């Protein structure tokens, strides 16, 4: 059986919260998503792919809108290989200056400008809660609350592993 994890990440790839902000955000997470467990704030330092796990279905070129599929029946091998290479590059280089070439359309783009289906993002920190059983309106409230704590816009990513 797979595990569903709700992740919240800032829309500014290099944003890292202060210790006070991180503690406040974790308190918010516990208060507004009380049904979940393993509430945590992870600081990565450098932008990492805040991924949807098994939910990831496509990456989208921000220049031309063409996509590559992560579905097992389509370009699965090429897309997963490209994605793991991308994450390897991100781990060793500053992402702000990191461009990648998209094998399916040939465009060179900033890694942090890539779009995904469903939504995912590159960020230097993330909040996580396992199996939160949260309603959509509670989720909107949670995203807004964390955005206020961090002072930057946040988004959510549903992941499954
Ligand atoms: Zn393109």
Q: What does this molecule look like?
A:
The protein is an alpha+beta fold and 161 residues long. The chain has one domain. Helix content is 29%, strand content 33%. It has 3 helices and 9 strands, in the order βαβββαββββαβ. The strands form 3 sheets. A 4-stranded antiparallel sheet has the order 2-8-1-9. Strands 4-3-7 form a 3-stranded antiparallel sheet, with no helix packed on it. It has a two-stranded antiparallel sheet with strand order 5-6. A hairpin with a 6-residue loop joins strand 5 and strand 6. The chain is globular. The mean pLDDT is 91. The structure holds zinc ion. Zinc ion binds next to loops.
Fill in the keyword field for this structure.
single chain, 161 residues, alpha+beta, four-stranded antiparallel sheet, three-stranded antiparallel sheet, 33% strand, globular, binds zinc ion
Reconstruct the topology from this structure.
Elements: E1 4-10, H1 19-32, E2 37-50, E3 58-60, E4 67-69, H2 76-92, E5 99-101, E6 108-110, E7 115-117, E8 121-130, H3 136-150, E9 154-160
Antiparallel strand pairs: 1-8, 1-9, 2-8, 3-4, 3-7, 5-6
The structure holds zinc ion.
Zinc ion (ZN) is lined by residues 61, 63-64, 66, 102, 105, 107.
